[in-house]
Amino acid sequence: MDRIVIAYVLYLLVSIPLTVLVARTLSKHGRTFLAEVFADSPGLANAVNQLLVVGFYLVSLGFVTLFLTSHAQVPTAREIFELLSVKVGTVALVLGFMHLTNVLVFNGIRRRHLAPKAPPAPALAGRPMPYPGAPPVPPFPAP
Predict the structure, then answer these.
(1) Phi, psi of 115 (to 5 degrees)
(2) Phi, psi of 109 (to 5 degrees)
(3) pTM of the model as a whole
(4) Which of 17, 58, 80, 124 is the most interior residue, by most CB within 10 Å?
């Protein structure tokens, strides 16, 4: 068997389980986080969690497979491990970046959901709403 094929197999044997491990961690803890955010709608929390995990898998595994090929010559075991270290290290960095992105998305969702809602503007009884910067309208008719 060609040594580059051995390198490819080793790369996939490390990268795919690493991707699955990160995705399961995101799913488990993301579910807890989103359940708090969407306490009034647990079905929505699970749906959002699943959508984020599926997106994570698609992007991560797509990157892993696109990054699989190499034109390097690997005549020795040392060069196989050097090639693998670069490839697996890059995958780990991309997974870490995607994990950070997911955490920021979760935090943004949480912040928007838990932000205090602005009270509705009081209605002016029968009067048109003034435009910004308009002089105040007196509460009684002008003489």
Answers:
(1) -65, 140
(2) -60, -45
(3) 0.66
(4) 80
**Cβ atoms 90, 67 nearer than 8 A:** yes
- State how far Cα 108 lies from the chain centre: 10
Q: CB-based burial of residue 139 (10 Å sphere; 0-12 exposed, 13-18 middle, 19+ buried)?
A: exposed
Helices (H), 38-137: 42-66, 77-114
What secondary structure letter does DSSP report for 121? P
Distance of CA 60 to the CA centre of its chain: 11
Q: Does residue 134 sit in helix, strand or coil?
A: coil
Instruction: Tell me how far apart the alpha carbons of residues 70 and 35 are, in angstroms, rounded to a whole number.
Output: 43
Q: Which residues contact 108 (CB under 8 A, 6 or more apart)?
A: none
H/E element holding 30? Answer: helix 3-37
Q: What is the pLDDT along the chain (143 residues), one digit of tens a residue?
A: 788 888 889 999 999 999 999 889 888 888 888 888 778 888 888 898 898 889 889 998 999 999 888 888 888 888 888 989 999 999 889 888 888 887 788 788 778 877 777 766 665 556 666 666 666 666 666 55
Lookup: tokens for 37: 């955010």
Residue found by looking up tokens 């979760």 in the block: 106
